[in-house]
Specification:
344 residues, mainly alpha, hpI Integrase, Chain A, 3 domains, 3-stranded antiparallel sheet, two-stranded antiparallel sheet, 50% helix, elongated
Length: 344
C-alpha cells in the first residue's frame, strides 16, 4: 500500500526502491489527488536519479531551506542582518535534508550534531531563526500549518547573576578614565547597555526624561527613562567622546587594578535592576526600564529576588505568631537598596 492516512488524517506516500523505503508525509488538508501526484513524482525521480526524490515538490510541504530563505529576507529589517545571517547559515545543512512537515526531526538532528561543538545559547539562536522562518511561511500561506511550536529551545543554565556592590562601583569609578566613568554612571542610573549609552545624543535629553531611540536598542523599541537627580551631572558629558573599544579597554584596566576581573560592564545594568527590586519596585516597572520584550524575561532573571523579599516579609510578619505555637521562627530583615549618589 503506497498511500495511506494516519490517525491525524494526514496523507502518507511510501514506495520501495531496491529494498529501501522512501516515505513522504503530506501536510494536513492534502487530498488523495495530491498524494497520487507525489507518488508519481517520486517514482519518476527514482527512475532518473534516486537522490532526486528530495527535490520532488510536495504541495504545501516545501524544503526547510525555503523557510530559511524567508527568514533571511526578513533579517534585512533587523538591527544586525549579518549576525542573523550567520545564525541562520549554521542550520542550513540540516534544512537541506528535511521538509516543513519534518521540522521536529530536523531540529532534533541539528541539536544532536551540534551540541558538542556549540553552547546551548548558540544553538538556540539558530533554532530561533528556523522558528521565525516557519512563522513567516505560515503567515505568507506557503504552508497551511504553523510548525514553529515544534522547534524547542535547549535549556540554558548559564544566565549570569553577578551584580556589583556599592563599594565596587565606587572603586571602579575612581579607576576609570573620565569618559568611561561617565558611561558607567549613566549605565547604572538608567540600566542602559553600553551600546545604548554610547549612542545617546544631546537631543535625546529632555527636561525630565531621557529617550533611548529604537535604532539603538536591542529590541528595536524606543524606551523613555526618567532622569533622576544623580544622573543629571553625568548627562553633561553627552555625547560621550569615547567609543565601544575605549570603554572596554578602560574597564579592563580598572578590573585588573581592582583585582575584580570577573566583573563586566553589563553587570551595572544587572545591579540597577537588583537594587530596584530590593527597594521594593514592582518587577513590571523594572521590566519596562530594562526594555525586556516581556515581563516574563525579567521574571526569569530576577524573579528569585522577589521571592526572597516575600519570604522576608512573611517571616517579619508571622515570626512572633509562630512562637506562640512553640514553632521556632526565623525573622529575616527586609532587604533594602543602598543609596547611590554622585561621588564628590
Amino acid at each position: 500500500m503506497s498511500i495511506w492516512d494516519d490517525s491525524k488524517g494526514r496523507k502518507h506516500v511510501g514506495i520501495m526502491v531496491k529494498g529501501e523505503r522512501i516515505h513522504r508525509i503530506l501536510p494536513e488538508g492534502a487530498t488523495a489527488g495530491d498524494a497520487k501526484l507525489v507518488e508519481a513524482q517520486l517514482r519518476a525521480a527514482v527512475a532518473q536519479k534516486p537522490k532526486a526524490t528530495k527535490q520532488v515538490n510536495i504541495p504545501g510541504d516545501p524544503m526547510l531551506t525555503e523557510v530559511l530563505a524567508l527568514y533571511l529576507e526578513h533579517s534585512q529589517t533587523l538591527r544586525s542582518p549579518k549576525t542573523a545571517y550567520y545564525h541562520a547559515a549554521r542550520i542550513i545543512p540540516w534544512a537541506q535534508k528535511y521538509r516543513v512537515s519534518q521540522t521536529r526531526q530536523a531540529a532534533a538532528h541539528f541539536i544532536k550534531d551540534t551540541q558538542v561543538k556549540y553552547k546551548p545559547g548558540t544553538i538556540n539562536w539558530s533554532l530561533s531563526c528556523l522558528r521565525k522562518g516557519l512563522e513567516l511561511a505560515y503567515n505568507s500561506n506557503l504552508v497551511s500549518v504553523n510548525h514553529a511550536d515544534k522547534v524547542k529551545d535547549l535549556p540554558v543554565h548559564n544566565l549570569r547573576e553577578t551584580t556589583m556592590t556599592v563599594a565596587q562601583i565606587q572603586q571602579f569609578s575612581e579607576l576609570l578614565s573620565e569618559q568611561a566613568r561617565a558611561a558607567m554612571w549613566i549605565s547604572l542610573y538608567t540600566a542602559c547597555r553600553r551600546g545604548e549609552v554610547l549612542k545617546i545624543k544631546r537631543e535625546d535629553i529632555g527636561t525630565d526624561k531621557l529617550v533611548i531611540r529604537s535604532g539603538n536598542t536591542k529590541t528595536l523599541k524606543t524606551r523613555t527613562i526618567p532622569i533622576v537627580a544623580p544622573l543629571r551631572p553625568w548627562l553633561e558629558y553627552v555625547p560621550l567622546q569615547i567609543n565601544f573599544e575605549g570603554v572596554k579597554s578602560s574597564w579592563r584596566r580598572a578590573r585588573e587594578a581592582a583585582n575584580l576581573e570577573h566583573l563586566t560592564f553589563h553587570d551595572l545594568r544587572r545591579s540597577c535592576a537588583t537594587m530596584m527590586i530590593a527597594a521594593g519596585v514592582d518587577i513590571y516597572v523594572v521590566s519596562k526600564l530594562l526594555g525586556h520584550s516581556s515581563v516574563t524575561v525579567t521574571q526569569t532573571r530576577y524573579g528569585h529576588l522577589q521571592t526572597d523579599r516575600i519570604a522576608a516579609g512573611l517571616n517579619k510578619t508571622f515570626g512572633e505568631h509562630s512562637r506562640e505555637h512553640d514553632v521556632k521562627a526565623v525573622v529575616v530583615d527586609q532587604p533594602h537598596a543602598p543609596s547611590l549618589v554622585v561621588p564628590t
